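Suppose a classmate hands you a notebook page containing two proteins, each written out with its sequence and a corresponding row of structure tokens. How would you begin to make sense of it? This section walks through that situation. The first entry is reproduced here exactly as it would appear on such a page.
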Amino acid sequence: MSSVSARAIKLLANTVIAFMPKKQFTTPEVADKYMLTGDERFSYCQGEHFTCGFGKQILTPKDVEEKKYFIAGYDSDNPAQGVLDDMLARAVFIDDNTGRGGVVICAVDAVGLSRHDVNDIRRLVLESGRVQGIRSINICATHTHSAIDTQGLWGEKLYRSGRDEEYMCFFKAKTAEAIISAYENRKNGRLFYSVTETVDMQFDCRLPEAYDRNLTKIRFESFDGKENIQIINFASHAELMGSKTTKISADFPCYMIREIEESNTNTNALFINGAIGGMISAREIKKVYRHELDCEQYTRDFGKALGEIANALEAETEIKPVINVHSRALKIRPENFALILMRFLGVLNNDVIRGKRRSEALISTELGYMELGDKQMGMFLIPGELFPELWNGEFLDEDESATGKNAEYDILKNLCECEHSFVVGLCNDELGYIIPDNDFLTDEKMPYINNATDIHQRRHYEETNSTGPHTARVLLEETKSIIRKTGELK
């Protein structure tokens, strides 16, 4: 930030932070109160079998036709004018019966949630008195761009939150009920996984083309044959309804799940997104951007095609009844002062902690790592939209990158010794894009507000929706620390 205007903006942000009253900040104790850390040390002693349950609740408000709700994901001030398909919360409870307790994976049809809201949901679950022995609750946004604004960024005005607090109370209560139902519906059975590489399903809107092409399916089958639960992981922005939509929709995950559930007896499914930073989307997304498609039909067709791919998976590997999981609270120092200002304007509701200096504000977030089986499946629980090269190592080199440097990271894939691994994106928080530092570029005059253009004439939009260039390194180093601490990595 060498320009006068950039320094002036930063000074203004620091001044605002310094004079903010204490009540605007959260203490670490309050921010972390309802986070479950999971296992301090990983153990590979097996239980007799898995126990799983599924629960779901509709998140679409009943008064959607009468009350103004803003659609999130594209332009601000876009009130919903109808419903194509419902927003849902879908939850799976999984216990390995080792006596350490079960874990929850919950997917909500939303563009994103703050960790503050995630912890509100956890509180409702834990204080309900209806669940016992849960060691980890993980809530992931599917990142649909056609759902009601749950973050606040898409209101009538830039400085006015698009969140409806009455609706958010409803949203959190229903999500908690889905999790509780998953616990109460549990049955004993077996767990399997299968993987296939998809062909011509995705598009990367930003170099390098480094995305994860895998579709991963985790399937539970109860011993009595009356319960079949599927968890699908795939990396793509759920934005196929297009920027002109005025209809609430869960986007393609709805139609993928519908195809799976209607094609298989006694089946419930949920979708967890992957590493979608940089911008990983559907194959025809440029036609969606240019409004050249019937977006509703394309959304249905794309989801159905993914469901058919999931249904065609036959070669399954049985997962041994072992679960290991650990989560860690983090404090991210944002360079993006706009995020902090939006927080103090009440647009966002992230937990912000005052730093050592009065003018320093830190965003409270968390990171996690989970394994299923005896080193069979590794899941990186990432609080945002990770650029996939941070997982697979396919970085731009010094001649191609915006900074003229190579990337130097211990990539996630190399940290995991499991047979198969993948990223769970937007998990327990939405930090925005998580970008390799060698290709991170901001506008000199108005950083984090205007898009920068590099020497290769590439537009750097994603940086305006990120916390800063250091976030990727913090998350990867902390993941390495978690894996080393819990006993897997030497």
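The notebook's second entry, a different protein, reads as follows.
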Amino acid sequence: MKFITTDSYDKLSRMAADLIAAQVIIKPDCVLGLATGSSPLGTYANLAKKCADGDVDFSHVTSVNLDEYAGLDGTNDQSYRYFMDTNLFSKINICPEKTHVPNGCADDLASEGARYDELIASLGGIDLQLLGIGLDGHIGFNEPDEFFTKETHEVELDPSTIEANARFFASKDDVPTKAITMGMMSIMQAKKILLIANGANKKDILDKAFNGPITPMVPASILQLHSDVTVIYSEN
């Protein structure tokens, strides 16, 4: 495991973008696992610039996103499909048909989870998975629990997750209480994992995740078992 500390969010974002760009350059038809939230915004802005400058070509890349809110379709400006389209996909030369996000509006989220896992398997798995980390240690929307869930699945969002995400909505009451998220199997089978975190409030959970016991009560702690993890952290 590599743990890199930087002194600014800008540096964190540039370093993360460099690692993702390197993956695409090494394997132009790679499968990227992507994340949402505030942490990767700078990374995506840097990737968009690299593409615009001709430094990296996404035309053969396939992407699979970690999660989606239950009940929000891609036209909702708080959906993760909308987030990805707005902040990355529309700014790079990736084929829209090769960008995949779980369908939070599926009639049966269990069947949607099985379909999504089959999709990832059919692509040969994920070459590089980008992750953030929640204050409770969640990755994707895998919340603290009594066990690690392998498959893509429906999840009840923890109150702390709802509180943290409320800033993106008109009010806390507007935040969906359920989501569909990639499970631990697809995440842990990714060939490389890149986790980014910024802010002094993330220091404690990073310590628990990577220096504490492996426990589903701190979902990110399972990453200790992966052979190729890079963590980039900035306190500022």
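A careful reader of the second entry would note: The chain has a mean pLDDT of 97.
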